[in-house]
Design goal:
four-stranded antiparallel beta sheet, Elongation Factor Tu (Ef-tu), domain 3, 248 residues, single chain, elongated, 15 strands, eleven-stranded antiparallel beta sheet, alpha+beta
């Protein structure tokens, strides 16, 4: 019987499945492509020169590891300057408060001194935030997918610096025919034979879509696929058999 294939467009995270337009039967293999469940493009929070790229393409890292260092030269002096101003503002407030208690300063003098403290503290916080932005840390454990800059390059605030993926847990985004609607559920297990390795990866359905696409007569389900043994990579392909109890 002639088949007509449907393709689910690649998303930021998910697994693409191609399914037959004909009613799916238990055990009939479906094609699959693996993608990382969690990934992120980290951008520059300040304008600065790239000082050091710590993690390069394909390298692994742990959550909190330094990925890219930007030059702090324009921001560290600002922190020291604002901290000194904040210290002076605090001392001035203390003096003004004593004068106020001794009837030698007006309520307005005291209020202005208090406002100066608040403004100085805000400036310290802002400069510290800018300084912290010179260090790009890993938001999760994973590996580098792509580096967008080079060392010594001047980057503007908002420019993408590095793309990272967490491939410890992969996700399957599955497009199923409407004939299987209501016949799969969260918690069901699926098996994927990975073409590149020949090994079988186990997955568990985590989400089942409740809306059908009338144009293609399909709906989506998601499945988590643990990367046991760190042998799976984003972009690998496989063959998947629907859950055995899907037709029940």
């Amino acid at each position: 019987m002639k088949r007509y294939a449907f393709a689910l467009a690649a998303m930021a995270a998910g697994l693409i499945f191609f399914v037959s337009k004909a009613p799916a039967q238990p055990g009939k293999p479906l094609s699959a492509v693996l993608e990382a469940k969690q990934q992120a493009v980290l951008s520059a929070e300040v304008t600065a020169k790239v000082e050091h790229i710590v993690k390069e393409l394909g390298q692994k890292f742990s959550k909190g590891d330094l990925l890219i260092a930007l030059d702090e030269g324009s921001y560290r002096p600002s922190v020291s300057k604002n901290q000194a101003a904040a210290s002076a503002a605090n001392k001035n407030f203390e003096v003004t408060q004593k004068l106020y208690e001794g009837k030698s300063a007006s309520p307005l003098d005291l209020e202005n001194a208090r406002k100066d403290v608040g403004m100085a503290s805000a400036n310290v916080a802002l400069s510290q935030k800018e300084l912290a932005g010179c260090r790009i840390y890993a938001p999760f454990s994973g590996r580098v997918k792509k580096v967008y800059v080079r060392e010594y390059e001047l980057v503007d605030k908002g420019k993408p610096l590095i793309e990272v993926v967490d491939d410890h847990l992969l996700q399957a985004r599955i497009l199923l025919p409407s004939t299987l609607f209501g016949k799969v559920h969260v918690g069901q297990e699926v098996s994927i034979e990975v073409v590149e390795t020949g090994a079988t990866a186990a997955g568990t359905i985590t989400n089942v879509g409740e809306v059908l696409d009338p144009a293609s007569a399909t709906y989506e389900i998601y499945a988590d696929v643990p990367n046991t043994g760190d042998s799976l990579r984003s972009g690998m392909t496989g063959r998947l058999a629907p859950p055995a109890d899907a037709a029940q």
